[in-house]
Amino acid sequence: MRAPATSAPHGRGIPLFSIITVVLNDRDGLEATRRSLLRQTCRDFEWIIVDGGSADGTAAAIRSFGDEVAWWRSAADRGPYDAMNNGMAAAKGEYLLFLNADDTLVSCGSLAWLKGEILAGATPDGPLDFVYCATLERSAGGGLRIKPARSHRMVWYGMFTHHQAMIYRRAVVAGLAYDLSFTVGADYAFTIEALGRSARVARGKQPLAVFAPAGLSGRLDRVGRLDQTRIRRKFLSLPVVFCFLIIQVQSMTMLVRRRWPVIYEICRCWRMYG
User: Fold this and answer.
1) 107, 204, 242, 243: least surrounded by Cβ within 10 Å?
2) Which positions fall inside the Glycosyltransferase 2-like domain (predicted)?
């Protein structure tokens, strides 16, 4: 179901951003995402919502949003990555940002700042193809802590920032899709392929999105490690031994985070400011 299209203040006839939100039985989370988008001073975006057939009144809520939503559907699908593919297929904006239910932008000026970064990063050779930023992680107690982004050149190690802070130029990822054979790691595979097509990449200097660390990858950590190994072998041709060593380092990192959080935080700060 498509509502009237969002205007495009940057003057190209289409919105600069397509913000794609997937949701399943999380009406309250969707409302939080909606409030974040309504507060944005930059209106150069369309909002696309893909509901996997929720039973909690989500579809009725989306219907009540009216013209705030450029396109939406509510129907059973094959999971979040299938929903993200459906959202991409409906997108009209120049850049894609996946902001799922209960994810929010850091401030009312986040999109305005991001738009400025994209416009400033354009060169005579063309616009930026891929932008990524840090995120803020929301704890169970409601506090926020920064999750700095690693360099995209370390994509061999894993996702260098959270998916909510990656912005893909739609023309660059045209023809790509999230591979549903990866239960948890399809976003990692998609990002590797997108980077392989991106000539101009930029890292933003401030956090873009706020998220709660309870997503699919957080709940299925072991499956995610196996997915990542398959992806490294398929897309990066990394040796099996090297893939094994990466898993060991990641496992040790998680152990330090659980048992010695102070040491973990010191290392995170060093990564951000060092």
Assistant:
1) 242
2) 18-104
Residue 162: what residue type? H
Letter string b/e over residues 212-236, b meaning 16 or more CB atoms within 10 A of that residue's CB: eeebbbeeeeeebbebbbbbbeebe
Gap between the Cα atoms of 39 and 198, Å rounded: 31
Angle at 109 between CA 105 and CA 2, to 5 degrees: 60
Domains of the chain: 17-213 (3.90.550.10)
186: its two tokens? 């399809």
pLDDT in tens, the chain (274 residues): 433 344 455 556 899 999 999 999 999 999 999 999 999 999 999 999 999 999 999 999 999 999 999 999 999 999 999 999 999 999 999 999 999 999 999 999 999 999 999 999 999 999 999 999 999 998 777 789 888 999 999 999 999 999 999 999 999 999 999 999 999 999 999 999 999 999 999 999 999 999 977 555 555 577 888 899 999 999 999 999 998 998 888 888 777 767 777 666 666 655 554 4
Token pair for 64 = 């009540």
**pTM, rounded to two decimals:** 0.88
Q: Are 59 and 51 in contact (CB under 8 A)?
A: yes
Task: Give the number of other CB atoms < 10 A from CB of residue 245.
Answer: 12
Residue-wise burial string across 57-93, b where 16 or more C-beta atoms lie within 10 A, e elsewhere: ebbebbeebeeebbbbbbeebeebbbbbbbbbebbbb
Q: Alpha-carbon distance 194 to 235, whole Å?
A: 11
Integer Cα distance of 271 and 150 in angstroms: 8
